TrEMBL record, chain A:
The chain crosses the membrane at residues 6-25, 37-58, 64-84, 96-115, 135-161, 192-214, 220-238, 245-265, 271-289. This is ABC transporter permease. It is found in: Cell membrane. GO terms for cellular component: plasma membrane. The lineage of its organism: Bacteria, Pseudomonadati, Pseudomonadota, Alphaproteobacteria, Rhodobacterales. The keyword Cell membrane applies. It comes from Shimia litoralis.
UniProtKB/TrEMBL annotation, chain B:
The keyword Transmembrane does not apply. It is found in: Cell membrane. Its main location: membrane. Keywords: ATP-binding, Cell membrane, Membrane, Nucleotide-binding, Repeat, Sugar transport, Translocase, Transport. This is ABC transporter ATP-binding protein. It comes from Shimia litoralis.
Length: 306, 514
């Protein structure tokens, strides 16, 4: 066992990378749930985003086009969920689970010819001087653009929800869809847009895994990150900055336990592997002990009768 | 100001199986308070939804100050100057007062300016309100103020109010009327929907009466008796409940120093409540919603347990018995919330009859349900209480409020209780059904049962109670003989109006607001 082999700077830099897919998916789902819709299909949209992004970037040779394609595919897949729940008025839990199963199958089918292929690498930020600084450089200034986008997106979602009129309408729809309808807001339209935003974010998160975190394609490679994202939104009490905190905590412990495994710590691997899930949820449960702000219409079907 | 503000002509709207409005026509003048009267299901809500742009008429036209008016959505109606205070408040509990107001406006100013405006208007009209408070923490009266201020900030020409006084104390009603009169003096027209006839007589200039979707008459309320208006509304002579006076019997229900912590964090703590109800007596308990009514019902029905000796029935301690054990002893209850508390919405009437009637009506044998006698019991309730439904297999949710209320009250009364506790027995029920429910309660008392009737409808309590008390913040006022109580005395018993000032209607205030 040699703990000195663990480099704290690299640890922090890689925890940010590990946290980003989770952060992206969870921020998207946060917006969806704030509009009063519970989409359990995050995992399915992520894995479809992972293969779509992979395929797009391999075929075009551009990782950026791949990422954009992943977001579009995630949003398209979420439209299926939107159609089922907003027009056919199907149960949201069942539709979301179906979406996940469908996404897992679809991605396996799409990915058959991409196993073992290497995608083009995403360029990293390389600022002269800044990126070469010791400690600060690798942590803050040498990542890929999507990682910064994730943090910026968190800030934007927070600001839009808190200060803007669009955010207010979104929260109102999630809080009491009947009242929002009575005041003349388009509940279904707002929700479809929110669902598509969530789908795009989940697709982006998936592509981050297949293009940047583990640059390769394997079936089922999202490995439950979508489910963690769902739990994260709840335990973060629907607050964007807490989602960021939770994602980094999860990413951090995940990277740490991998390092500990590599360093040969005398704890069975299974315990280490489960630790990120346990600790993240434990911390968030303690933090959400204040009154949790679940949107009051969450998961309820809206039908504008009369 | 004179002239016609809104003219409605031949409006018709049909839903599958029912014509909600059938060629309704009437005019609203500038600066008048116009009443829209009618039973539940008479089509009042559909009509105002058409004016507010939520529902499109099938045929007919509306004219706004001489120009054609057909708002495709509420936004367009608001832009023309129509504002609406909804019966079931269209508020968002988790948002602040200012955010709620902003949601009802077309072009809200920045939050800081809006907060200042809200303070301004609320003081001007005597409706104090803090813009930063979360709506979920407000009382029903304060919530209504949020709705009214939301409307006032848009400077409406026509203010639609749907059953505004059902949640207010008499003092709050008085202040609301002063606000409305002030608005009227400033030239705003008000369309006032209510079935409380005395209110309409004091407040309104004209009244249009709807029955089954048709305009069946207009009148000037101040010159028409409440009884005549009621009969126009019902289309039939109205039966005033009659009662046989019984001699004071033995004490059946005795509650001593009942204190109880609420089961949910937003509930009201009951504080040292004591009262007695004799056989054949109806005790009416008034008070604004949220002052301990639900908790008191829970304590009496057995949903919340206390020390055994706190509640006794004919001398037997029952405070520590659950609902079924109490039912066995003849203590029955009908809670306020029909769907979800008094009845399971998606279950049939037969199944709902079984849920409370199983014990006293012997509807189960060795753990098996006797469906034949359960159905018979449900059918008995339906015929005895004139519940309009296709049959006992209908889901509770499918019944209208009034019919379901008749069913849940009937279900308890037919079990022949010794003690019956009802909360809001005629809430949201039309006049004819309300009269029959009240008559059934009086008959039950005549047969020797002790009845506790919790209600926010003071007219109802005055009509049927022998004694009256009021709940205020979990405390019970002194119990008084109901006969001879004045509205002022009742208001004081209910704790009066909190933190309210009457709006100033004198000249300087108007100059400021203009």
């Amino acid at each position: 066992m040699d703990l000195s082999a663990i480099n704290p700077v690299l640890l922090i830099a890689s925890l940010m990378v590990a946290a980003t897919p989770l952060l992206l998916a969870a921020i998207g789902e946060l917006v969806v749930e704030k509009s009063g819709v519970l989409n359990l299909g995050v995992e399915g949209m992520m894995i479809v985003g992972a293969i779509a992004g992979f395929a797009f970037s391999v075929e075009t040779g551009s990782p950026l086009l791949g990422v954009i394609g992943a977001a579009i595919c995630g949003a398209l897949l979420s439209l299926l969920f939107a159609f089922l729940t907003q027009f056919a008025l199907a149960n949201q839990v069942a539709s979301g689970l179906a979406l996940t199963l469908f996404g897992l199958g679809l991605s396996a089918l799409m990915g058959q010819s991409y196993v073992g292929v290497r995608p083009p690498a995403m360029p990293r930020l390389d600022l002269p001087v800044l990126s070469d600084l010791p400690v600060v450089g690798p942590i803050l200034f040498s990542h890929d653009p999507i990682l910064y986008f994730g943090i910026a997106l968190t800030a934007v979602v927070w600001a839009v929800l808190k200060f803007s009129r669009i955010g207010l309408i979104l929260r109102a729809v999630g809080e009491n869809h009947d009242a929002a309808h009575a005041l003349g807001y388009h509940v279904v339209r707002v929700r479809i847009l929110a669902i598509m935003f969530g789908g795009a974010c989940a697709g982006l998160g998936g592509a981050y895994i297949s293009l940047i975190r583990v640059p390769q394609w394997t079936e089922g490679m999202t490995a439950g990150i979508g489910w963690i994202a769902l739990a994260l939104v709840v335990f973060a009490s629907w607050k964007p900055w807490r989602v960021l905190l939770g994602a980094y905590l999860f990413g951090g412990i995940n990277v740490l336990q991998l390092n500990l495994q590599a360093a040969g710590v005398a704890i069975p691997v299974e315990y280490l592997a489960m630790s990120p899930y346990l600790i993240t949820i434990l911390v968030l449960v303690i933090m959400s002990a204040d009154k949790s702000g679940a949107p009051a219409s969450l998961g309820r079907i809206f039908h504008a009768s009369q | 100001m004179t002239g016609t503000l809104l003219s409605i002509s031949g409006l018709t709207k049909a839903y599958p199986g029912v014509v909600a409005n059938d060629t309704v026509s009437f005019d609203i003048q500038e600066g008048e308070v116009h009443a829209l009267l009618g039973e539940n299901g008479a089509g009042k809500s559909t009509l105002v939804k058409m004016i507010y742009g939520l529902v499109k008429p099938d045929s007919g036209t509306m004219t706004w100050r001489g120009a054609a008016f057909a708002p495709p959505e509420p936004r367009a109606a608001r832009a023309s100057g129509v504002a609406m205070v909804f019966q079931h408040f269209s508020l968002f509990d988790a948002l602040t007062v200012a955010e709620n107001v902003a949601l009802g406006m077309e072009n809200p100013p920045a939050m800081r300016d809006l907060a200042a405006k809200i303070r301004d208007v609320s003081e001007n009209y005597g409706l104090p309100l803090d813009p930063d408070r979360t709506v979920g923490d407000l009382s029903a009266g304060e919530r209504q103020r949020v709705e009214i201020i939301r409307c006032l900030l848009q400077d409406p020409k026509l203010l639609i109010m749907d059953e505004p006084t059902s949640v207010l104390t008499p003092q709050e009603v008085e202040i609301l009327f002063k606000t409305l009169n002030k608005l009227k003096a400033e030239g705003t027209s008000i369309l006032y929907i209510s079935h409380k006839l005395e209110e309409i007589r004091t407040l309104c200039d004209h009244a249009t009466i709807l029955r089954l979707g048709k305009n069946v008459g207009t009148c000037i309320p101040a010159e028409t008796t409440a009884r005549d208006m009621a009969e126009l509304m019902v289309g039939d002579t109205l039966h005033t409940p009659t009662r046989t006076i019984t001699e004071g019997g033995e004490v059946v229900l005795d509650v001593k120093n009942l204190s109880l912590d609420p089961s949910n964090p937003f509930g009201t703590k009951l504080k040292d409540i004591s009262f007695q109800v004799e056989a054949g007596e109806i005790l009416g308990l008034g008070g604004v919603a949220g002052n301990g009514q639900d908790e008191l019902l829970a304590a009496l029905s057995g949903e919340a347990l206390t020390d055994a000796a706190t509640i006794t029935v004919k001398g037997d301690p029952v405070g520590d018995l659950g609902p079924n054990e109490r039912r066995n002893l003849g203590i029955l209850a009908a809670p306020e919330e029909r769907l979800g508390h008094a009845a399971a919405p998606d279950m049939s009437l037969t199944a709902n009859a079984l849920l409370t009637g199983a014990i006293r009506e012997n509807l189960t044998h060795k753990g098996f349900v006797d469906w034949a006698s359960t159905t018979a019991f449900a059918e008995k309730i339906i015929s005895a209480f004139d519940v309009r439904t296709p049959g006992p297999h209908t889901a509770a949710r499918a019944l209208s409020g009034g019919n379901l209320q008749k069913f849940v009250i009937g279900r308890e009364i037919l079990q022949n209780p010794q003690v019956l506790v009802v909360n809001q027995p005629t809430w949201g029920v039309d006049a004819a059904a309300a009269a029959s429910i009240r008559q059934a309660l009086l008959d039950l008392a005549g047969a020797g049962a002790a009845i506790v009737c919790i209600s926010q409808d003071l007219d109802e309590l005055m009509e049927i109670s022998d004694h009256f008390g009021a709940l205020n913040e979990g405390r019970l006022s002194e119990i008084r003989q109901a006969v001879g109580l004045t509205v002022e005395e009742i208001g004081l018993m209910m704790g009066g109006a909190h933190d309210l000032d009457a709006p100033e209607i004198d000249a300087p205030a108007q100059e400021q607001s203009a």
